[in-house]
Design goal:
This protein has 438 residues and is of the alpha+beta class. 46% of the residues lie in helices and 18% in strands. It folds into two domains: 199 residues, Cytochrome Bc1 Complex, Chain A, domain 1 (2-Layer Sandwich), CATH 3.30.830.10; 181 residues, Cytochrome Bc1 Complex, Chain A, domain 1 (2-Layer Sandwich). A six-stranded mixed beta sheet has the order 1-2-6-3-5-4, sandwiched between helices. It has a five-stranded mixed beta sheet with strand order 7-11-8-10-9, with helices on both faces.
Length: 438
């Protein structure tokens, strides 16, 4: 009987063979878009990704939750979901048979309808989706069905500690604004939203001044232009959004804290959220804020990791950036035991106090840049992430060059610039804090 080779030797041989046959240059995901306009002025942000046989389209509407007036919480999400519905059963069956993935929703400063399908079906798919957008059916039964769905989503959100803490944090930092409500709305508001409200919202956003098309496809640009023009020529020319009608973000008062968060309706538990608004203009500040967030909260070795790994005070510990009304908010949040909430908040605040006083050394900034670059590239492999970041860029009224040159903007930030921003942001008098104990 022939003797088997040693397992380690077999692995080494396999690795050597893999190196020999592996292509010398791996294909990379595209990181840039180009923009062009249709004859009616509709802007199209286009990314060519050959060989995929897949087309992804986002209808991107500026405004989102920020357009809601008092008593209309959830209107943007409700209207956008209704706009995306395919009401004709035959056309809906055709979409399902083509394997189309269709979704819709709203965010703080934009709403989006997205679909993805095989490129060979794209012309027909777009025709179906565009026909629904042109003549949406805002009937009573459909409104009631989506309204009930949003009520359920809002109820589930209110049972999640971190989600509830973040909503209360936005209430503190943007007093009186729509950002302090759930994207899914409140039950009383959803109940009072009328068909007239939905029609008015639809009319305000369905034009080339508010709507842009984001596309990732293997279609050549000329073919894409012809298909888009055929199905979207009916969209009206540019009309600007109405002015925002809510109070802008303010610096914290002496006691900008919420010890109890009435939004939370879930089981026993505890959560802490700490927020800081970055000063300065969005375009200049965001790359530095992005780097700081990675250094502070991106996994093992980050500044807040010891709260989980060494102190053992917290689980589900993380940080994030939010863009709200052109302002950048750094948020750090955690879930913990009820009797550890106060000490967890104290340790968090001490961490940011040290950062504001001591700053970061050049080695920490260099490591942070590596983490940020690698993380950005890794996340950009997914189309949804690329389109999501572009959506944030457009909602912040930033130019396309900001997206296309983002890695270069990260590299240009010096340790001195990051430390200056940290000192200006993370001082104790700029902190918003929320503690939920139940």
């Amino acid at each position: 009987m022939k003797e088997r080779g040693h397992p380690i030797k077999q692995l080494v041989l396999f690795a050597l063979l893999a190196v020999l046959v592996w292509p010398q240059r791996l294909p990379a995901q595209p990181l840039t878009f180009e923009v062009f306009s249709l004859d009616n002025g509709l802007r199209v942000y286009y990314q060519f990704q050959p060989g995929t046989n897949l087309t992804t389209v986002v209808f991107h509407f500026l405004g989102g939750q920020a357009l809601e007036t008092p008593g209309q919480a959830g209107l943007a999400y409700l209207a956008t979901r209704l706009m995306a519905e395919v009401t004709d059963e035959d056309r809906l069956s055709e979409l399902l048979a083509s394997g189309v993935n269709l979704s819709a929703g709203s965010r703080a400063d934009f709403s989006a309808i997205q679909f993805e399908g095989l490129t060979r079906h794209f012309d027909r798919i777009l025709g179906i989706v565009a026909a629904g957008l042109k003549n949406p059916l805002f009937s009573g039964p459909r409104i009631d069905r989506v309204r009930n769905s949003l009520k359920l989503e809002a109820s589930q959100e209110a049972c999640r500690l971190v989600d509830s803490a973040l909503i209360c944090l936005r209430r503190l930092s943007f007093p009186g604004s729509p950002y302090g409500q759930s994207l899914y709305g409140r039950e009383a508001d959803l109940r009072s939203i009328s068909r007239k409200d939905i029609n008015q919202f639809y009319d305000s956003i369905m034009n080339g001044g508010v709507l842009s098309i984001l596309v990732i496809t293997d279609l050549e640009k000329k073919s894409l232009q012809e298909i888009l023009a055929r199905h979207l020529s009916w969209i009206k020319s540019k009309t600007p959004l109405p002015g925002k009608r809510f109070q802008e973000a303010n610096l914290p008062s002496e006691k900008a804290e919420a010890r109890g968060c009435d939004h939370y309706q879930g089981p026993e538990g505890a959560a802490v959220a700490l927020g800081y608004l970055f000063p300065g203009e969005l375009a200049e500040t965001y790359p530095a804020a992005y780097l700081l967030e990675k250094i502070i909260g991106e996994g093992p070795g980050s500044l807040i990791w010891n709260l989980r790994q060494e102190s053992g005070l917290a689980y589900n510990l993380n940080s994030r950036l939010e863009i709200l009304g052109g302002k950048i908010m750094f948020v750090c949040y955690l879930e913990t035991e009820k009797d550890l909430a106060a000490s967890s908040l104290t340790l968090l605040k001490q961490t940011f106090l040290r950062l504001s006083q001591q700053g970061l050394d050049p080695e920490a900034v260099a490591r942070g840049k590596v983490i940020a670059r690698n993380g950005y590239r890794r996340e950009s492999f997914g189309r949804d992430n690329r389109l999501g970041f572009l959506s944030l860029v457009l909602a912040g009224s930033l130019p396309l060059e900001f997206f296309n040159n983002f890695l270069e903007l990260l590299d240009k930030k010096s340790p001195d610039q990051l430390n200056e921003l940290a000192r200006a942001t993370f001082s104790p008098d700029r902190a918003y804090e929320v503690v939920i104990v139940r």
